[in-house]
Design brief:
This is TIL domain-containing protein. By secondary structure, the protein is of the alpha+beta class. The chain has a domain at about 25-45 and about 55-85: Laminin (Ribbon), CATH 2.10.25. It has one helix spanning about 5-20; strands at about 25-35, 60-65, 70, 75-80. The strands form two sheets. The protein has a two-stranded antiparallel ribbon. A two-stranded antiparallel ribbon has the order 3-4. β3 (about 70) and β4 (about 75-80) form a beta hairpin. The N and C termini lie far apart (about 60 Å).
Length: about 80
């Protein structure tokens, strides 16, 4: 019984946190995003993770741009609409 109560508490906290995440336009809630993956942006559309840095195999929940969109100033826009330098 001593083990059961903390387990229920952890489940409820995780459930409450997940249900509070609201994604913006052109985004979806990725329930198992990689902990180490960089988010593609207009400034860095093809980020490469450093292979020398260990990455834990942990899922994180975060909003991710839908296919064909990329992050720019906190919003997902069409890739071709990225500002030109």
């Amino acid at each position: 019984m001593n083990f059961f109560l903390p387990l229920v508490c952890v489940f409820l906290i995780n459930y409450a946190t997940a249900s509070e995440i609201k994604c913006g336009p052109n985004e979806y809630l990725n329930t198992c995003a990689s902990y180490c993956d960089e988010v593609p942006t207009c400034q860095n559309p093809y980020p490469i993770r450093d292979p020398n840095i260990a990455c834990p195999a942990v899922c994180v929940e975060r909003c991710t741009c839908i296919r064909g969109y990329i992050m720019n100033n906190g919003k997902c826009i069409r890739r071709e609409r990225c500002p030109k330098c």
